[in-house]
């Protein structure tokens, strides 16, 4: 190999190494002397790297250095990424935990807003909920329930061990405010419901909420249970009134 040929080979190697994107033969030819054998230089460089840790590979008519395929598995890095849930996801989990098996429509009725499909998908991906079956009603809607992984996450032996409102108040996890204060807080929270559907999608995409804390989540579970009991009591009173 002549010195000129060796210099051209080194130049092609340097161009391919320094470029972030694959390079076309035409782009290489622009940086080489006129009449240079670009194709021959590429093939020669391929041969030189055939048994090395990186290979010169053709990608859609362009060329770039890439890790040797047999070494790729050894270069993989696994990282644990903490899952962050939106407020809507925690509320949905609370409703499922205390009212299971429950349908999507029932979750929406209790929360008072439409449920984003991504919320159930996220909880199912984590492994905290799963489909139980289909309810024998018109439309046969799917029902949801919690999983053993949910119990393990929150340190519960069985679903019946979920704490009630009084237990959480005694532990200081729920603010024991007067009823009028609680009503005012509920009204303020209701005024923010208009942005809730957007919060579901955006919170799950950009991780806008804090990671789930078992104490906060269990408090939310108990609040959802109390809300469901109040609705059930109201329904019973309405049925009991004379027509």
Specify the structural class.
Answer: mainly alpha
Proportion of residues in helical segments = 40-55%
The side-by-side strand order for the widest beta sheet comes to 3-5-4
Q: Strand portion, in percent?
A: 5-15%
Strand-and-helix sequence, N→C?
HHHEEHEHHEEHHHHH
The CATH topology of the largest domain is Arc Repressor Mutant, subunit A
Count of extended strands: 5
The CATH superfamily label of the largest domain reads: Winged helix-like DNA-binding domain superfamily/Winged helix DNA-binding domain
Return the domain count.
2
Outline:
The chain is mainly α and 243 residues long. The chain has eleven helices and five strands, in the order αααββαβααββααααα.
Please give a structural write-up.
By secondary structure, this protein is mostly helical. It is built from 11 helices and 5 strands. Helices cover 53% and strands 10% of the residues. The protein has a 3-stranded antiparallel beta sheet with strand order 3-5-4. The protein is elongated and about 90 Å long. Mean pLDDT is 76; it is low at 178-185, 191-198, 200-211 and 231-243.
């Amino acid at each position: 190999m002549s010195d000129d040929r060796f210099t051209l080979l080194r130049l092609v190697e340097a161009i391919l190494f320094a470029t972030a994107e694959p390079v076309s033969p035409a782009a290489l030819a622009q940086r080489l002397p006129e009449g240079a054998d670009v194709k021959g230089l590429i093939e020669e460089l391929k041969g030189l790297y055939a048994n090395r840790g990186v290979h010169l590979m053709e990608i859609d008519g362009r060329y770039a250095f890439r890790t040797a395929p047999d070494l790729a598995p050894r270069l993989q890095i696994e990282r644990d990424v903490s899952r962050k849930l939106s407020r809507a996801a925690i509320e949905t989990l609370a409703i499922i935990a205390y009212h299971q098996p429950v349908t999507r429509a029932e979750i929406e009725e209790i929360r008072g807003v439409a449920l984003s499909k991504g919320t159930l998908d996220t909880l199912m991906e984590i492994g905290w909920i799963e489909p139980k079956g289909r309810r024998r009603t018109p439309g046969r809607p799917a029902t949801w329930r919690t999983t053993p992984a949910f119990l393990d996450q929150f340190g519960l032996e069985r679903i019946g061990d979920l704490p009630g409102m009084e237990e959480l108040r005694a532990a200081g996890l729920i603010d024991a405010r007067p009823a009028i204060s609680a009503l005012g807080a509920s009204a303020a929270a209701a005024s923010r419901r208009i942005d809730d559907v957007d919060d579901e999608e955006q919170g799950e995409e950009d991780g806008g909420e804090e990671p789930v804390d078992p104490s906060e989540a269990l408090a939310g579970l108990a609040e959802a249970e109390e809300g469901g009991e109040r609705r059930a009591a109201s329904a019973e009173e309405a049925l009991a009134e004379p027509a």
